[in-house]
Amino acid sequence: GDSVTQMEGPVTLSEEAFLTINCTYTATGYPSLFWYVQYPGEGLQLLLKATKADDKGSNKGFEATYRKETTSFHLEKGSVQVSDSAVYFCALSLNTGNQFYFGTGTSLTVIP
Amino acid sequence: DADVTQTPRNRITKTGKRIMLECSQTKGHDRMYWYRQDPGLGLRLIYYSFDVKDINKGEISDGYSVSRQAQAKFSLSLESAIPNQTALYFCATSDRDRSGYTFGSGTRLTVV
Q1: Of A43, A103, A105, which has the smallest distance from its Cβ to B105's Cβ?
Q2: What is the dihedral of CA B111, B84, B103, B62, to 10 degrees?
Q3: Are the beta carbons of A82 and A33 closer than 8 angstroms?
Q4: pLDDT tens for residues A29-44?
Q5: CB < 8 Å to A36, chain B
């Protein structure tokens, strides 16, 4: 079935370190791919998205490229800040589907 | 005001009690969803609705019911709460173009 698998956390990085959170997907059709971020005590917010192969989504210094050949949508940031500490969710949505499929979330803590 | 408002934010209830969680939105979206979030399990879909007369079960609908009172309102009920329904509940909305979900801030429900 359709699903998303993302790397388990928690991840702890020092400020200004490089971040990668891996996400791979399984889908029967042609999905759109998303990264959501959940700050403590809040709901999920859309961080970035890509709707077709080779698209790159970007926002707030985060980037992810839709790789159809490797069925991946890894999240990257070149220099993380303490304020990036949050839980990150990868998700997919199908053209013909009724819902989004979420990964289990990866907790990121950035220390000064 | 928030685009998607959930009430209450926190609730403690006893086993066997009926409880209703409410969601209202100002996005003008047709589609509304209820998810629950549990540590290590990510988000799981309970129910969704594509318009006022459309209600669909998600992957974990047992023990829950919903009502779509208007385009802007979608409530979730636990008819007889049990402790394993202790979780963080999120309401979300989306437009038909699947550009992404807008989430509420969540309701933290504890069943004792």
Answers
A1: A43
A2: -110
A3: no
A4: 788 999 999 998 888 9
A5: 101, 103
3-state secondary structure A31-69: CEEEEEEECCCCCEEEEEEECCCCCEEEECCEEEECECC
Compute the average pLDDT of residues B31-51.
91
Q: Does B42 touch chain A (CB under 8 A)?
A: yes
Tokens 């819902």 locate to: A99
**Interval B80-103: pLDDT, tens:** 999 999 999 999 998 877 678 899
- Nearest residue to A24 via CA among A96, A91, A77, A107: A91
Residues of chain A under the 50 pLDDT cut: none
Q: Which of B101, B102, B103, B108 to mutate to test the interface with A (most CBs of A within 10 A)?
A: B101
Q: Which residue from A31, A28, A21, A24 is spatially nearest to A80, judged by alpha carbons?
A: A21
- CB–CB of B42 and A102 under 8 A? yes
